[in-house]
Amino acid sequence: MPGGEQLLSIAVGLGLAAATGFRVFLPLLAAGAASRLGYLPLAGGFDWLATTPALVALGVATVLEILAYYIPWLDNALDTIATPAAVAAGVLASMAVLTDVPPGLRWAIGIIGGGSAAGLIQGITALLRLKSSALTGGLANPVIATIELLGAGTVAVLAIVLPLVALAAVVVLLALAFRATGRLLFGRRPPPTNPPAPA
């Protein structure tokens, strides 16, 4: 069973991974900046995330990604790229903070936990944006983009400051994602109709 420190690092990792489902680069930037400021230890081999070149590159990428999602129809095109990118970023974000975790467990948590959390959340936001584009011609997409941005920032900060709260939030987000995906794909089921009473 993981110890207390390991459990916290797993919570941080899954929280950051889930945040990459909303925005790919912002959680990585938050993790790198937090490590640079001494608030977040990074696992061996991931120290580069806190270097100046990495922080500058992630900062530029974060700004460009945020702005691009406010451009109608470009946001839908970006989702085709963002989905695999979010999975990769989720794996990276989770593995980067899994300190004192055996390598086999780190890979399992990173790929299965981090990648899945990021992919599921990104997938549901892409479906929401696609439906919004179809219903409103993209006019409501900036609202979705703003919610995603707030989600990425909030979950990333929670993961670093209150990891266990972030882990609970991830569980809730994933449950909501499953439910919303079912509704988007299959629609609401009509209420059962009672058969007419026999004459």
Features:
0% strand, 74% helix, single chain, 199 residues
Describe the overall structure.
74% of the residues lie in helices and 0% in strands. It has one domain. It is mainly alpha-helical and 199 residues long.
Shape annotation: globular
Work out the number of β strands: 0
Structural class: mainly alpha
Q: Report strand %.
A: under 5%
Number of helices: 7
Please give the radius of gyration in angstroms: 19 Å
Portion in helices: over 70%
Topology:
Elements: H1 4-20, H2 26-36, H3 52-68, H4 74-96, H5 103-136, H6 141-161, H7 163-186
Helix pairs in contact: 1-2, 1-4, 1-5, 1-6, 1-7, 2-3, 2-6, 4-5, 5-7, 6-7
What's the short story on this structure?
With 199 residues, this protein is mainly alpha-helical. Helix content is 74%, strand content 0%.
